Amino acid sequence: MIKLGILLCDDHRPELVEKYGTYDQDFIQMLDAVAPGHFEYQAWRCHEEQFPNAADQVDVWIISGSKWGAYDPAPWIKHLKKFIQKIDQYQIPLLGICFGHQVIHSALGGHVAKSEKGWGLGAYPVIARKSFGAFSEGETIRVLSMHQDQVMKPAPGFDSLAHSEFCPHPITHKSQHILTFQSHPEFVDELFADLCHKIREKVDQELIESTLLKMGQEDDRHPVRRLVAEFLLGNSRLKDPLAE
């Protein structure tokens, strides 16, 4: 069984925890549905200054989303970036989701900033730059997203696997040990809809309403979830950009 460490960088609001459980449970439910019995889980609440003792304490890592920005000066974010550097140094498999995607690039020499284009909300389309996993070059990929910040410049050694006019680097990887997504494959529709209602005061109302109207439409979260599981199990079909 693979030991999987979840580095939590936030949690759901109390009323959402009552309905859906804590944020780490979203990842556990996602992976148990795709690869039942393969993972043993442990979570650390990094946003509360709770960190593992060592980068090799588990076999694979996940870094969650967060309301914070990767560029924020909070001490726990600085601590997390140093921990990411150790994980990369030891080449331990690491999955980054939303803020996790951004903070990995920020920690390893990339650039993250708030987009001038506003919020990326819902399962907006991105295009595969090359074939990877179950996706072919040029194929459209749609997975639920909720963000303002973006990776503007990937960290050295990373390959950008997809792009869109709105988000230039929504999916990236480095060698065989880091995979990152701007989107949220771990979210279910009901949770995402509730989160949309929670950010109404921050987002254009037309964008909120159009996003909610599209909820329930078919998207690509299931093949992405399989790709995530394959990556964490060591069976991914990702090419090493440094070998090309």
Features:
single chain, 244 residues, alpha/beta, Rossmann fold, seven-stranded mixed beta sheet, 14 strands, disordered C terminus
Short description:
This protein has 244 residues and is of the alpha/beta class.
- Known CATH architecture: 3-Layer(aba) Sandwich
Order of helices and strands: EHHEEHEHEEEEEEEEEEHHH
Number of strands: 14
Q: N-to-C terminal Cα separation, in Å?
A: 32 Å
- Order of neighbouring strands in the sheet with most strands: 2-1-3-4-14-13-11
Please, what is the oligomeric state? single chain
- Class by alpha and beta content: alpha/beta
The top level CATH class name: Alpha Beta
**Shape label:** globular
Helix content: 25-40%
Our estimate of the beta-strand percent is 15-25%
The average pLDDT is 94
Q: How many domain regions?
A: 1
Unreliable runs: 240-244
Could you tell me the radius of gyration in angstroms? Answer: 17 Å
* CATH fold-level assignment: Rossmann fold
CATH superfamily: Class I glutamine amidotransferase (GATase) domain
Sheet with most strands: 7 strands, mixed
* Number of H/I helices: 7
